[in-house]
Amino acid sequence: FVAENGKKCRLCTIGNQQEEFESYGNHQIIEILPFLFRALSGETVVLDEADSGIHDLLYSKIISEAMPYIRGQLIMTTHNTLLLDIPEIKDAVYIVRENEDADREVVSVSESGERIFQQTSIRNKYLTGAYGGAPHVEAIDFKSLIGVIEDDENP
Fold this sequence. Notes:
Radius of gyration: 22 Å
Shape: flat
Number of helices: 4
Order of helices and strands: HEHEEEHH
Number of strands: 4
């Protein structure tokens, strides 16, 4: 890194001290690699939100590069919609969505009734609500919220 005085500096560590300088995302990558290797070697692996702290592009790249070599089964939960663009997983995508009674159900994208062609972007269809599961984002009235907070602070 470059110090305030313009001099180039190098960060050196002693022993295992280096890991405390690594980002949370780097720690997560190191944590998931053994599980990914298990899926590569034929085991069934379940990863729950393992991409927390890892940049979406990086996690998507790791998974897409590993997909052709997975001899086992890799089951993941994630909020990373970029993974939906990996061609090898089109038949293996399930969405968790709420039904009319606010109960959650797991729905297979390939059995959703929506046609999926080779050029279909599951990600785009998901984000536009075709499969459910995506949050319904409406306007948030921050002006009213601020008014409520100010009223509570000044009774």
